[in-house]
Specification:
heterodimer; A: mainly alpha; 0% strand; B: globular
Chain lengths: 140, 395
């Protein structure tokens, strides 16, 4: 028969330490990415505003931050559907600015299901809190 | 640190790790949950959004929406759901551990079995996929465990009276306002009670009257919370509109192929481990539970298939049967191989393999194509291949 106590302790200790280490690594990577994303956003958003060139927002890899960069131009009347090729970040920013979920359906079709959902949900949040882009765009 | 602390903390960390993959992500149903939260906060919604809320299925399960509405001003609507769901996920894992300790109380390996079952639960593919999204699925699994604990507690009484069943009926009715998976506990309680009456020799004479006296108040109180909610918010029944969803697709061979692929993939190797567990299980009370609950859960999954909803989120209702059996299977394999490989290594390997497959499956789960509810198995296979192409860059 198994000596339950010893075996049990070995199993739970293994999982505790290995998962703890994985979580610490994930946290460090997340913090590092967040820091570099913020730096990237500050740099390109400032440059885009300075040069009045929304296309520079495309250099921001993080979809939420890229959308936030575009939102400044969209609120000034910039039309993302005139941009070639269409930018997901810009279209989300425009959908949120217009507070129009049907716009999301028109621009995100086919395999753009996650972008469509992010756009629509952000539109609903924007309608009632004006914080549509705050938590948006977690696409795996 | 004691083994107990390691055990509980490792289960907590495993739940957090699983919950991180899809934390704060959205699915189609999220579009109903978000405006429902604002509606319950008392905000004035536009006509379209009000209709979206009142006609949505999501709003008919309002308990977590209410909790999210309270938390929303502090963290925003998406984090309100995700944070609540992370807490609920951890609570489900830990509660399931205690439930299994009680379930295996007369087994000499109860600590190991309870831990293995709870660890398998924490790294289950359906939980990784759905538990911490902006949805309320996680809460449904928690109410299932709570409901099972309640029913077990009732059946530990010397005699079950009408007020016991009133209590179960009311609580299960309240749980139905959280998520509908708990509906399984209704026939399960009935079957379990009839079995209890059948084996209780002292009650033989008054069996039928006794059964009626206990089951009648259960059936009466069960829909009360739902009726009160429907009346107060003037929303239709939970089944309204569902009859129309019974379309031809699910009855085709490809529709049932989808059923097998989706529900098979949800617990993957756990089915094989559970088979070994079933072969080695000797306790008649536990076998009775597996059969009774298994029948109820299977009927639920078939019913869900008939209203055109096939998703691993519904397979999860099998976990009270599959995971204890898989834990028994792992222990029996460990005992069998103990001369070749240390027992704890076999246990670790089995949980690890199960976790790796679950994480890989969850990561490769098709999210870019909308699979129609009445689509067949071929649609699922194509969508999975597309996702693999995209994420691994193969073919």
């Amino acid at each position: 028969m198994i000596n339950e106590n010893q075996e049990h302790r070995a199993v739970v200790k293994f999982f505790f330490w290995s998962v703890l280490i994985i979580l610490i690594i994930i946290t460090l990577i997340t913090l590092k990415t967040k820091y570099s994303d913020e730096k990237e956003f500050e740099m390109y958003a400032a440059q885009a505003e300075e040069e009045n060139n929304p296309i520079l927002c495309e250099n921001i890899k993080n979809l939420r931050l890229s959308s936030q960069c575009y939102s400044i131009f969209v609120s000034q009347g910039y039309d993302c559907t005139g941009q070639e090729p269409w930018s997901d970040a810009c279209l989300i920013a425009q959908g949120v600015f217009l507070k129009d979920d049907l716009f999301c359906d028109i621009v995100f079709t086919g395999t753009k299901v996650p972008e469509n959902l992010e756009c629509r949900v952000s539109v609903f949040i924007e309608r009632y809190t004006n914080e549509g882009l705050r938590d948006c765009c977690h696409i795996e | 640190m004691t083994a107990k602390k390691y055990c509980l903390l490792s289960l907590l960390l495993l739940s957090i790790l699983s919950g991180l993959l899809y934390y704060n992500t959205v699915l189609v149903d999220t579009q109903a949950y978000v405006p429902s939260t604002y509606y319950l906060q008392g905000k004035i919604l536009g006509d379209d959004d009000t209709e979206r809320v009142l006609q949505s299925y999501a709003f008919k399960r309002p308990v977590e929406i209410m909790a999210a509405a309270l938390l929303e001003p502090l963290v925003g609507v998406r984090h309100a759901y995700s944070l609540l769901n992370m807490l609920i996920f951890a609570a489900t894992t830990i509660l399931f551990y205690y439930y299994l300790k009680e379930f295996f109380k007369n087994h000499e390996q109860k600590e190991n079995l309870a831990y293995i079952g709870a660890a398998l639960c924490a790294v289950s593919l359906p939980l990784i996929l759905y538990a911490t999204r902006v949805l309320v699925d996680g809460a449904g699994y928690l109410t299932l465990v709570l409901g099972l604990l309640l029913i077990e507690w009732i059946f530990e009484r010397k005699e079950i009276e009408w007020y016991h069943s009133c209590f179960v009926g009311f609580i299960v009715g309240m749980f139905l306002l959280v998520r509908d998976s708990v509906v399984i506990l209704i026939p399960y309680f009935g079957l379990r009670y009839l079995h209890y009456i059948y084996i209780n020799k002292e009650l033989k004479r008054q069996k039928i009257w006794k059964a009626c006296a206990v089951l009648f108040p259960f059936v009466i109180l069960l829909p009360m919370p739902e009726i009160i909610f429907m009346w107060y918010y003037n929303v239709g029944s939970v089944l309204s509109g569902k009859a129309a969803a019974i379309t031809a697709g699910k009855y085709s061979l490809l529709g049932w192929l989808k059923f097998i692929i989706v529900h098979g993939a949800a617990f993957h190797v756990a089915y094989i481990l559970a088979y070994f567990g079933w072969k080695h299980e000797q306790d008649s009370a536990r076998k009775r539970f597996y059969v009774l609950y298994g029948i109820c859960a299977f009927i639920y999954i078939i019913g869900i298939q008939l209203v055109a909803l096939t998703s691993p989120r519904f397979t999860m209702v099998l976990f009270p049967v599959l995971l204890p059996l898989a834990a028994t299977g792992i222990i029996s394999l460990a005992e069998k191989w103990k001369n070749t490989i240390a027992i704890h290594k076999t246990i670790i390997c089995c949980i690890f393999i199960y976790a790796i497959i679950s994480f890989l499956g969850a990561w490769l789960y098709p999210s870019r194509t909308l699979i129609l509810e009445d689509a067949g198995g071929n649609a699922v296979i194509n969508a999975v291949l597309e996702e693999i192409k995209l994420k691994l860059g193969v073919f």
